[in-house]
Specification:
With 177 residues, the protein is an alpha+beta fold. It folds into two domains: 135 residues, Pnp Oxidase, Chain A (Roll), CATH 2.30.110.10; 29 residues, no CATH class. The chain is built from four helices and nine strands. Strands 1, 2, 3, 4, 5, 6, 7, 8 and 9 form a nine-stranded mixed sheet that branches. β4 and β5 form a beta hairpin.
Length: 177
């Protein structure tokens, strides 16, 4: 099922999770390694910015390649998977035009000490798990038992709904062009 959701929804979820696994999906011999990354910014153009340590041969890497980002965080009941095109940003003019980055990061990106990347979102999958109902509400159960015994205007088995625990997973596909 393809669902179109606004970009601000993805920005909110990515900012909430912040940590992702980055995969380079190209078939190239020299490619960036799979890494844990921290999302620095998700801009209004649908680009996720982050950096990773330089592995030594930055000049031999593809400047553009398909990629996958899997955002997750322990304790959160959702995760986000982003497919897109990754771009290595090391052109001095483009790096210096970034207003949200500090000067140290800009210098490290230009000199090759770190690899600054942006991933243009093409497809996004959002997965949410419904929390299990683990706490039984005793007050509600006692009220229902009281009304069952002493009042005849309610259904005889209305208190049974408090014992059911529901769980499920609701995947959604978000597509940006």
């Amino acid at each position: 099922m393809v669902t179109y959701l606004p970009l601000f929804f993805l920005q909110e979820k990515i900012n909430d999770l912040q940590t992702a696994l980055f995969y380079n999906l190209s078939g190239s011999v020299f490619k960036t390694p799979t890494s844990v990354i921290y999302a620095l910014k998700t801009d209004d153009c649908g680009q996720i910015w982050f950096y990773m340590p330089a592995s030594g041969c930055v000049n031999e890497l593809d400047k553009e390649f398909p990629s996958l980002l899997q955002f997750f965080k322990k304790g959160k009941h959702f995760h986000v998977r982003i497919n897109g095109r990754a771009f290595i940003v090391n052109d001095p003019e483009e790096v210096n035009a970034i207003s949200w980055a500090d000067n140290e990061m800009k210098n490290d990106a230009i000199t090759g000490k770190l690899i600054l990347l942006k991933v243009k979102i093409q497809y996004a999958d959002y997965f949410e798990q419904k929390q299990k109902q683990t706490k039984i509400e005793w007050v509600g159960i006692l009220k229902n038992i009281y009304s069952f015994v002493f009042e005849n205007n309610q259904s005889k088995y209305s208190f049974l709904h408090n014992f059911t625990a529901k769980s499920g997973s609701f995947p959604g596909r978000i597509q940006y062009h």
